[in-house]
Amino acid sequence: MDQFIQIVIGGLLQGSVFAIVALGYSLVYRVTGIINLSQGAFCILGALLTYSLDQTFGWPVALAAVGAAAMTALVGLAIGAAVFVPALSRLPISSMLILSAGLLTLMEGLALVVWGSQPYALPSFSGEAPIEFFGVRMTTQGFWIAGTAALIIFGLWYLLMKSAAGKALRACAENPLAARLMGIDVPRVTLASFALAAFIGGLGGIVVGPITSLQFDTGRFFTIFGFIAVAIGGLGSFLGAVVGGLLLGVVLQLAAGYVSSLFANSLAFGLLLVVLLWRPNGLFASGLARRTDVREEQRIYPPIVRLQGRGALILGVVAVLAAIALPALEPSASVMSSLVITCILFVALLGLDIVMGYAGQVSLGQAGFMAIGGYAAALLATNYGWSPLAGCAAGMLLSVACAALLSLFTMRLRGNYLALATLAFGLLVDSFAVGLTEVTGGPSGLTGIPSFALGPLVFDTSIKMYYLLIALIVVLVLLLLGGVRSAFGRALQAVRTDQTAAGALGINVARYKLIALCISAALASLAGSLYAFYFHFLSPDMVGTPRSLELLAMLVLGGEGTLLGPLLGAALLTLLPTIIQPLAAYKTLATGALLVLAVRYLPGGIFGAAAERLRRLFAARGTSSSKAEGR
Amino acid sequence: MSAAALEVVDLCKTFGGLRAVDSVSFNVPSGSLTALIGPNGAGKTTVFNLITNFFRPDTGEVRYFGASLTGLEPGRIAALGLVRTFQSARIFPGMTTLENALVGAHLQVRAGPLRQMFWSGQSRREERALIRRAEALLELVGLSAERQVPATELPMGAQKLLEVVRALMARPRLLLLDEPAAGLNDSETAELAALLRAVRANNITVAVVEHNMSLVMGVADQVVVLDAGKLLASGTPAQMQSDARVIEAYIGQDEGAADA
Ligand SMILES: Nc1ncnc2c1ncn2[C@@H]1O[C@H](COP(=O)(O)OP(=O)(O)OP(=O)(O)O)[C@@H](O)[C@H]1O
Ligand SMILES: [Mg+2]
In a mutational test of the pocket of ligand 1, which residue from B24, B44, B47, B212 has the highest number of ligand atoms less than 8 Å from its CB? Predict the structure, then answer.
């Protein structure tokens, strides 16, 4: 019984932090309609700043905490003013989500550069000695956490419900247009709420710091569990955020205490899916209803770029010939290996482009499918004597089955939720890869995987693997081109930008989302299998969530909806750090920064910009040669 | 059997306290061109949304060539040949004019995604045939020069015409158009009128919400007048033009809006 109470108290403490993060989510969501994935990064920023001020600069811990919270708010203000708020009025919601994922990566990269990858621990605010309380032992830090959470909840409630600033904020949430007409400076209120959410997140991270292991990428943990909390409670509802957070904390601690932490993670994910299915608006729907038959203001969608006709054909043939000739330059072993990795990732990116670029469904769990394909094929080939090809096929089938199951849950939901369900899915696969030690080898990975082979043909060198991949890619690109340039691709693009209008034309929106997700899962899975066969080794961090975010960056940087563009993104982010070694430490930072910049300033990515140039050039030539063509 | 293409029976819809549509009943005879008119906020768009099940009606029923549409998904309704356009032209951004038109033919395509991926002969032939048909329709509304232009770069009037073309690509039996002439200049309006006549000549039934009276009077067989959610009157264009209640509803409203 004592143990039970102990666990519940532990759960409530952890839950109050989830609640704090969830409140940040709700605040930003209410004002902007955006789920801000960088929310969790502010927690870790606050905690690590406290560590540095306390340990490195010798400030007393209380002062360090206050200083760190203030600095976090300032960072939030800066990011909000420079990136988030200006982008808000221009980008569609799916792009805003990607932007916030980019901000998360950017802040992780920054933390990696400043603090390195080792774990940190904050000292308790008031000593380590626990207090006995009717036979229940509690650390004093627990009181700090509970007190701060209560203070934040009360403060936020007072601010929103009782103050003039809160009225303005609520007006923006309910009807931005009317609020603007009433003379409220909507961008300023938006910025204020973004910075306030950062401040709250920072505080949460600071108080929970002493009982958490802090690493540069722990923010992701807060982001996902805070989101699960807010989805359970109901996006935009403040009561829901608090209840959802506490509930999640208790459930997680109970599951971890009585079963295992692997089970706890799966349970959290399961809880999210059940709530999404049973009450898509959460337990405490905020009652915000917006008209759906009128269109919101026009947002700028990245164009679907296509090169057509003879020019495209020539360009394609030249590109393939160049790729075939490339090894003749005798690149070093590491560059050759990077080329192979680029090609493997491109296979996964082709799938991601179908689901994201064409169908407009943000997927943040692409690496989860890579992991399924990688582990399935590797295990079958290593332990059960399957041929690598059969292993790949089995992995693809399994991945498609998972994707179908996933979309069963997310079918009725709009973009945001699918994205977060895929993120949760990726993390779940991650936790299985780490937790099922007997099967997957746990964190130290799976070794002794054979090379890929087609009958007697064994692909055991980089060069052989490279040519195999070139052939595979040519076939895949031709197939997908046939699809996206026909009714199939048009249906996907219609779903991407306007599901209502697509439905009115008889396009089965759910079906096309499902097909796109399955294609992307199959290709990611294939890429994961090839990855394992190439390295003869597979570990969870090769196919974890950072990989998903990296793929996202490669896609957006290379160009969404271009099929070929992602190759440029993959090459850039894979080859550059190999060729210029000192860059490796900045890779995460650069990935995040490039992702943010590309979403914001380069719709269509590098490929899109280049193709547009070419199109203009040809159009100009066309008009000068035949004046009849007009324009 | 020239039964009604559409029977709207006693439709009601309230939003909060507002009775947006209040027991409205009317018929659209097969092969006719019926205009739905009424002052702003009368509930015309809401009636369209109820017919195509974008909103579920509180009470009432819609029958389409005799069969009830209750509970059908908008996509299923489109598959039955009942196709609509939107008041705010909802063309798909990121696609060209021609591609937007082709999306309308989605349900006409027989070759499945796999055949399309394998560049099958059937799929290529179908594609070419669709392109020919789309180009012919674009020609009819004067948009063929812009067929490779990103559709969002078209002026508003052209976007609305494109939306009508897109709906026609679906080979509808009954076409619902929500204010197709809004934002069109005079020559575009003339093209629209010609298109509407051509559509009716092809035996496609049309119901159109429209504020442009000269267009309505020129092409409609029947006019249905809504005011404040209620059915005010219905009859031939000539009857409506001289109906005192209709004139009053419009004048009461038009005095303020005349200059706008
Ligand atoms: N989804 C909705 N939620 C709340 N109110 C709505 C909704 N849809 C329509 N209304 C209200 O119902 C009434 C009728 O609207 P509707 O759009 O059908 O009018 P309309 O006749 O099409 O007018 P207009 O000529 O301006 O297009 C209006 O008062 C409108 O505000
Ligand atoms: Mg209307």
Answer: B44
Going from the Cα of A497 to the center of ligand 2, the distance in angstroms, rounded, reads: 22
Mean of the pLDDT values across residues A194-213? 90
What value of ipTM does the predicted structure carry? 0.89
pLDDT in tens, A570-626: 999 888 888 877 777 888 888 889 899 988 888 788 988 888 787 777 766 655 544
pLDDT of residue A298 exceeding 60, the answer is no
Sketch out chain B's domains with CATH numbers: 4-95+172-259 (3.40.50.300)
- Closest residue on chain A to B90 (Cα): A501
Comparing CA positions, the residue from A574, A93, A501, A37 lying closest to residue A349 is A574
CB B93 within 8 A of CB B152: yes
A494 touches chain B (CB under 8 A): yes
- Cβ neighbours for A291, distance < 8 A, ≥ 6 positions apart: none
DSSP code per residue over A260-307: -HHHHHHHHHHHHHHHHHH-TT-TT-------SSSPPSP--PPPPP--
What pLDDT, on the 0 to 100 scale, is given for residue A497? 86
Question: Which of A304, A500, A506 minimises the CB distance to B170?
Answer: A506
Q: Is the dihedral of CA A568, A570, A576, A578 positive or negative?
A: negative
Cβ-defined contact of B49 to A491 (cutoff 8 Å): no
Q: pLDDT digit string (tens) for B36-53?
A: 998 888 899 999 999 998
Task: Tell me how far apart the alpha carbons of residues A271 and A501 are, in angstroms, rounded to a whole number.
Answer: 33
Alpha carbon of A170 to ligand 2 centroid (Å) = 29
End-to-end Cα distance, chain B: 45
**Ligand closest to CA B229:** 1
Q: Where are the domains of chain A?
A: 2-278, 309-326+333-616
Domains A2-278 and A309-326+333-616 share a fold: yes
Gap between the Cα atoms of A365 and A354, Å rounded? 14
Tell me yes or no: is domain A2-278 CATH 1.10.3470.
Answer: yes
Q: At what angle do helices A366-383 and A388-410 cross, to 10 degrees?
A: 150
CATH 1.10.10 for the A309-326+333-616 domain, yes or no: no
Residue A84 · residue A566 · CB < 8 Å: no
Helix (H, G, I), strand (E, B) or coil at B97: helix
Nearest in space to A530 (alpha carbons), one of A467, A591, A478, A443: A467
The label of the residue with tokens 């774990």 reads: A119
- Ligand closest to the CA atom of residue B37: 1
> Nearest CB to A504: which of B74, B95, B113?
B74
How far apart (Å, rounded) are the C-alpha atoms in residues A334 and A342? 12
Q: Determine contact, residues A233/A22, Cβ cutoff 8 Å.
A: yes
Beta-strand relationship, B205-209 and B33-37: parallel
DSSP state of B19: E
